[in-house]
């Protein structure tokens, strides 16, 4: 399958050179600050910017430390002068503006899918609404005040003010806030992303390995359309220099749709394990996710617990299909609007097979999954 990175040439045309024309992008002085680059999706957005040869500023939260940004500094040409890391905090206007004054383009991938104050020993003093709604609003306002040319905001498919999911309601409010403060912003709604060690589909693989019987909500009938994080990163990068994306919303999903049961059946075939699932009623899930949020038995709970992936808001989203449907509104953009052929999108079985093997029961090459 052809996986080419496209970049602008000096004449303004799109180049199909697989080397990405990095020198041309540097000569054009394309620079970008990717807020949230140390996250799961943000790291792929930053990697795509590096492949296009952009000059990058990598903001990271000071309290989170430099471990997340360490692996991002060597991307791209691997030399000094392309990636610059700096610390910031979302409530420090003068710090954020000092970053914005050095770039012309901004990508926001910051988001929180769990209320930080709901579990013990949290390392964050910001609420979920502050991260998902107020931060995009402030960043868009400060970007407009600092004369930023292009602003790209990553949202979620299913964002709706009337959604039963708190997260999806906040994503819808963030979209409205961004467009109010920065009318020419590009908003990209993404379905659930997958990559080598994501926080969505890897949890089912972990449950297959350790629990043997996987509990599922909604009888496993939720429809998924997972998209590779690198494809979303490529779309966000191209949105910086495609003028027709200004002030528009895109809904982007993967090339294949399947149910939760179909996914678990495929994983069991890859792992050589039995396909055993348990249909747990919603009221029982509600009790389990509540306990999962409150109990501090998560990785690193002594220094501050990580948010559990199976929480109550995750349970609410299991009864909502996760499908991108740009055809329902002619104003919504699709992959073709970014110059990305749908047949070039990564399928889960192409990129996720190695991750599936990591969690398998018997795999001598990966030391029985102990690497994770």
From TrEMBL:
| Gene Ontology cellular component annotations, sorted alphabetically | mitochondrion
Spell out the molecular function terms from Gene Ontology: protein-containing complex binding
- On the tree of life, the source organism's domain of life is Eukaryota
Xref: InterPro entries: ComplexI_NDUFA9_subunit, NAD(P)-bd_dom_sf
Q: What protein name is recorded for this chain? A: NADH(P)-binding protein, putative
């Amino acid at each position: 399958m052809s996986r080419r990175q496209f970049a602008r040439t000096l004449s303004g045309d799109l180049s199909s050179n697989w080397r990405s024309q990095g020198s041309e992008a540097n000569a054009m002085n394309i620079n970008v600050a990717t807020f949230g680059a140390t996250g799961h999706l943000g790291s792929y957005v930053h990697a795509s910017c590096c492949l296009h040869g952009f000059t990058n500023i990598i903001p990271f939260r000071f309290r989170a430390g430099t471990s997340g940004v360490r692996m991002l500094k060597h991307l791209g040409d691997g030399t000094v002068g392309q990636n610059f890391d700096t610390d910031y905090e979302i409530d420090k206007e003068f710090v954020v503006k000092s970053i914005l004054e050095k770039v012309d383009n901004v990508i926001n991938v910051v988001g929180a899918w769990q209320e930080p104050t709901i579990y013990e020993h949290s390392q964050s003093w910001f609420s979920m609404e502050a991260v998902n709604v107020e931060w995009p609003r402030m960043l868009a306002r400060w970007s407009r005040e600092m004369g930023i040319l292009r602003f790209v905001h990553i949202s979620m498919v299913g964002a709706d003010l009337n959604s039963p999911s708190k997260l999806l309601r906040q994503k819808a409010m963030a979209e409205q806030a961004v467009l109010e403060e920065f009318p020419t912003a590009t908003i990209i709604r993404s379905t659930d992303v997958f990559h080598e060690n994501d926080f969505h589909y890897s949890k089912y693989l972990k449950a297959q390995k350790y629990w043997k019987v996987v509990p599922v909500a909604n009888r496993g009938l939720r429809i998924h359309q997972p998209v590779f994080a690198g494809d979303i990163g490529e779309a966000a990068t191209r949105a910086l220099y495609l003028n027709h994306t200004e002030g528009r919303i895109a809904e982007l999903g993967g090339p294949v749709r399947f149910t939760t049961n179909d996914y678990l059946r495929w994983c069991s075939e890859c792992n050589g394990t039995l396909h055993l699932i348990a249909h747990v009623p919603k009221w029982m899930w509600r009790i389990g996710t509540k306990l999962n949020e409150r109990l501090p038995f998560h990785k690193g709970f002594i220094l501050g617990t990580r948010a559990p992936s199976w929480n109550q808001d995750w349970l609410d989203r299991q009864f909502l299909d996760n499908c991108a449907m740009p055809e329902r509104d002619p104003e919504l953009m699709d992959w073709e609007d970014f110059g990305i052929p749908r047949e070039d999108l990564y399928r889960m079985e192409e990129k996720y097979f190695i991750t599936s093997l990591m969690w398998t029961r018997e795999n001598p090459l990966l030391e029985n999954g102990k690497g994770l």
